[in-house]
């Protein structure tokens, strides 16, 4: 009997220690997840996470800016999120004299906190299943266009109703590829001030070398505060505003973590594709990703070369380099991960089983019998178009031809003259002011030799990589006048253009009049920008959009088929930048043969990586001193300080900054990344290797208190010792 019990317990443990795939809907936890969560160790209820009747965790979680998550950690509106999420706010306050990015910044009182125009945070008030109302009047026989029109009209009406007589905003998002719809009613706070950020040598320690990797030692956090009007409601920035008093904030735990502990991540995962057919994986891994990786490899090599030569250039291109490098590295990891998982074969086997089931019944056959053939046809065309579209955007945006970006800044000004008989002084000077700001911002971080080399290189690459029908007109000119010598074409462009230099761009702007329009139109950088834009607008975008719509429609049908086929399984919807719950356990992983990773890193690892020669690994002197003196205060554990930890929560881009809580719902970490071997989790989750990386909250507190001397901030937190 005892033996049997042991077997049962270990079976249970084996099962419970497993990673839990999925990004779950907060409103439906009670129905689908809470029992399992509690079995895994969670001590709270579904109502504690999401409730409209009482204060719950959801009241302390927000969309931070445009693509991250943040959470409240005091009853005075204090927020913690990632350093890389606060990056542009921190950068915007940085100057040569006050380089907060490099040196860090800490407000020593509320008066010193820095406002950030344009930065907002968004709280979810409530969500609601509105599928029936969205699909009123929709019939299966409708054309795609008609269906979309009816749905759009219904959505407008529902949103209007939800935001009538209140200051909320509303969005409706499709779930399960349009088989279900949810309404989200939100409250947006617009006065968000920077409270503090560690120096980049802590907040971005390891840089792009360590990005997407374990073992990790990045102190990826920054601290902000929400301000509200005298009624505690959202308001534009004003000196009169007061710190926001939330209904709920996360207690911060100093108790630490052990391998096997329950963890939950609560945030805004951006987008995943878990239910696509094998053709989609083939398109990404064989056609699209390799070319995107190639073009970015070229960009990065050129940037790196100049950045290594000149520290000034390094600062200018740090953010650009990070942006280009981030997805570049992830795509490579995804290809590798899918390959090792044998993902396409797995999908194919699943598709076969599903089709056998479909073909057993004439009704199902009528509905789903052709789905895979239709996918196959679609993807044959989709791949080329998606590749051309993605590459085109790589050329004129995304740190491609930067001088084309400068040219495009003049577009609003041109439009003003073109669309209005006499735009009037006021409108013109306002438009000029806006362009001027953009130009000044841009040239702060511009280095012409990089742009020139990238331009010649990627123009040539683009022409080699896409179907000739997607070549903009400029290629004809390069052929006729320059005999396809991209170098020569680029040399001439940079010699002639007014947009590659701040002085000439500003001079053009200062004296801008109707006559200047001709000058802009004749400028070679403008011409380049324009021909690419035209190819995009007239050719690629319409084509891509219609194929994507067709794809959406097939996805809806295929999703429905999958859910009927596995009618006992509880499906989770793909991420769509709505609030979700991921749960799992603190856990290391086996990365490769004989490489077994532990779940926790410590300050010892920072000192091991310390290398003044390598930019990414320069440890600040102050941190070294604290280390030498073992001056760790109450953040010390076994003679060291914990830094980052791994867990099995299913996360993706957008989850950065998400609260990571323990079984009691106390904050133990801030999510910021995933480990390299598991980044294919957007397409297929592998419980053995998919891990999210979190900053241990104790390291954040240690840095705030001991390193920055801003310990007064801890007084407003609820610390659990
Ligand atoms: N990989 C993380 C995420 O996708 C962090 C990105 C920012 N850091 C960087 N070195 N690029 O957002
Ligand atoms: N680093 C990502 C973010 O910024 C998170 C991830 O992709 O795991 O959202």
Question: Mind explaining what this structure looks like?
Answer:
- This protein has 721 residues and is an alpha+beta fold.
- It has a domain at 278-559.
- Helix content is 49%, strand content 15%.
- The strands form four sheets. Strands 1, 2, 3, 4, 5, 6, 7, 8, 9, 10 and 11 form an eleven-stranded antiparallel sheet that branches. The chain has a seven-stranded antiparallel sheet with strand order 14-13-19-20-21-18-17. Strands 12-22 form a two-stranded parallel ribbon.
- Strand 19 and strand 20 form a beta hairpin.
- It is globular and about 70 Å long.
- It starts with a helix and ends with a strand.
- It binds arginine and aspartic acid.
- Arginine binds at residues 84, 207-208, 211-212, 322, 325-326, 653, 656, 673.
Q: What are the segments in which pLDDT stays under 50 over at least 5 consecutive residues?
A: 6-17
Helix percentage range: 40-55%
The mean pLDDT is: 95
Bound molecules: arginine, aspartic acid
Question: In what range is the share of β-strand residues?
Answer: 5-15%
Q: Using only CA atoms, what is the Rg?
A: 27 Å
Task: Report a brief summary of the structure.
This is Dipeptidyl-peptidase. The chain has 721 residues and is of the alpha+beta class.
């Amino acid at each position: 009997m005892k033996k049997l019990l042991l077997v049962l317990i270990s079976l249970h443990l084996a099962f419970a220690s497993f990673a839990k795939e999925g990004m779950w809907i907060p409103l439906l936890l009670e129905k689908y997840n809470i029992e399992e969560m509690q079995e895994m160790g969670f001590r709270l209820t579904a109502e504690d996470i999401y409730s409209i009747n009482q204060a719950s965790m959801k009241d302390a979680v927000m969309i931070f800016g445009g693509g991250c998550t943040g959470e409240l950690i005091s009853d005075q509106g204090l927020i913690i999120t990632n350093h890389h999420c606060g990056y542009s706010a921190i950068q915007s306050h940085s100057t040569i004299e006050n380089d907060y990015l490099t040196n860090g910044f800490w407000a020593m009182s509320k008066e010193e906190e820095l406002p950030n125009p344009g930065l907002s945070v968004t709280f979810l008030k409530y969500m609601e299943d509105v599928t029936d109302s969205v699909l009123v009047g929709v019939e299966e026989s409708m054309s795609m266009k008609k269906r979309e029109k009816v749905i759009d009209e219904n959505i407008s009406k529902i949103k209007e109703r939800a935001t009538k007589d209140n200051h909320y905003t509303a969005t409706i998002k499709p779930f399960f590829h349009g088989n279900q719809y949810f309404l989200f009613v939100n409250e947006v706070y617009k006065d968000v001030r920077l409270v503090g950020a560690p120096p980049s040598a802590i907040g971005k320690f390891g840089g792009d070398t360590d990005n997407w990797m374990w073992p990790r030692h990045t102190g990826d956090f920054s601290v902000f505060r929400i301000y509200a009007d005298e009624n505690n409601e959202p308001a534009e920035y004003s000196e009169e505003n007061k710190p926001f008093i939330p209904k709920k904030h996360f207690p911060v735990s100093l108790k630490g973590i052990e391998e096997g502990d329950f963890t939950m991540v609560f945030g805004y995962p951006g987008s995943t594709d878990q239910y696509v057919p094998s053709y989609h994986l083939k398109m990404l891994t064989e056609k699209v990703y390799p070319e995107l990786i190639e073009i970015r490899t070229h960009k990065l090599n050129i940037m790196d070369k100049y950045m290594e030569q000149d520290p000034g250039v390094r600062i200018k291109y740090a953010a650009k380099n990070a942006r280009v490098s981030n997805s570049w590295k992830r795509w490579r990891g995804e290809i590798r991960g899918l390959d090792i998982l044998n993902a396409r074969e797995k999908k194919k086997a699943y598709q076969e089983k599903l089709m056998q089931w479909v073909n057993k019944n004439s009704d199902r056959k009528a509905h789903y019998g052709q789905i895979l053939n239709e996918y196959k046809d679609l993807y044959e065309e989709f791949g080329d178009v998606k590749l051309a579209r993605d590459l085109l955007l790589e050329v004129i945006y995304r740190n491609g031809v930067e001088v084309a970006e400068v040219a495009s800044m003049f577009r609003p000004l041109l439009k003003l003259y073109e669309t209005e008989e006499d735009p009037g002084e006021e409108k013109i000077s306002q438009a000029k002011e806006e362009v001027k700001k953009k130009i000044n911002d841009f040239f702060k971080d511009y280095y012409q030799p990089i742009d020139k080399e990238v331009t010649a290189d990627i123009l040539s690459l683009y022409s080699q990589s896409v179907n000739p029908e997607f070549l903009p007109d400029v290629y004809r000119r390069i052929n006729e006048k320059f005999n396809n010598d991209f170098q020569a074409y680029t040399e001439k462009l940079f010699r002639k253009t007014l947009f590659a230099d701040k002085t000439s761009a500003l001079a053009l702007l200062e004296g801008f009049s109707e006559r200047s329009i001709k000058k802009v139109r004749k400028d070679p950088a403008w011409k380049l920008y324009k021909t690419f834009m035209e190819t995009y607008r007239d050719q690629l975008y319409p084509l891509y959009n219609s194929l994507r719509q067709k794809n959406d429609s097939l996805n809806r049908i295929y999703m429905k088929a999958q859910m009927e086929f596995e009618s006992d399984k509880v499906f989770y919807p793909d991420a769509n930048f709505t609030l979700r719950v991921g749960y799992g356990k603190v856990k290391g992983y086996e990365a490769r043969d004989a490489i077994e990773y532990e779940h926790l890193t410590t300050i010892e690892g920072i000192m091991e990586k310390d290398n003044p020669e390598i930019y990414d690994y320069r440890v600040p002197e102050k941190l070294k001193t604290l280390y030498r003196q073992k001056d760790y205060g109450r953040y010390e554990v076994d003679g060291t300080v914990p830094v980052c930890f791994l867990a099995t929560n299913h996360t993706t881009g957008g989850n950065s900054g998400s609260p990571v809580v323990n079984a009691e719902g106390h904050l133990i970490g801030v999510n910021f990344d995933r480990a390299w071997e598991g980044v294919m989790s957007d397409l297929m989750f592998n419980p053995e290797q998919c891990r999210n990386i979190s900053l241990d909250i104790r390291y954040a507190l240690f840095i705030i208190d001991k390193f920055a001397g801003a310990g007064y901030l801890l007084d407003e937190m609820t610390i659990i010792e």
